[in-house]
Specification:
By secondary structure, this protein is an alpha+beta fold. The chain has 4 helices and 11 strands, in the order E-E-H-E-E-E-H-H-E-E-E-E-E-E-H. The relative contact order is 0.27.
Amino acid sequence: MRLIDVKGDACAGLQVFNTEMPTERLNVADTVKVQWNAYLAAGKLLLSDMGRVLMSIEADDAETHDCFSGTSNAATNAAKYGEGRNSGSYPNGRDRFLLGAAKHGLGRRDVHPCVNLFKSTKIELDGAITPQVGPFAPGRSVVLRAEMDVIVVIANCPHVLDPRPEYSVTPLRATAWRGTATTESDPIRNATPEGLRAFLNVEDYYRR
């Protein structure tokens, strides 16, 4: 799946589920902890709460992503923009996720913490979170490779920590296609022992 930040001000909140068993889903904490890195880029993995790799980042010319902040909700948008309803002028990320999840029979309890692509945060030495929200150059892209059969839900809304007073978000283009299965010699699969274990867990799952 290729995501393109068409005009440089998109913020792609991403949630990922195992299609066959949606109770298995993206675990942002494990994604950070297992890889010893909180800043996503090419070669990094999106890991599930079952120790399996859901998707890998095959290519990335943005390198501005966020694993810390989650997404906005109706209350945060109402406080900042004066209104945050899904059907209003300033829709929030959580309600957008709920709409996307509902199309697959999922409900409120299934909406989990997300990663944000194209907008980043920096953790300062004192623990403060500094948003880095651009706008950036248009046309930046990220290519994600599904390592399992997955449901992907995307909410393109302003980053919850965006300091700008105006509601600002520009179009996101998403394209998906069927690729080839990851091979045993794949460099992303074999980059780290922890990552390899996550791939082996996927292979064991499909051998059931």
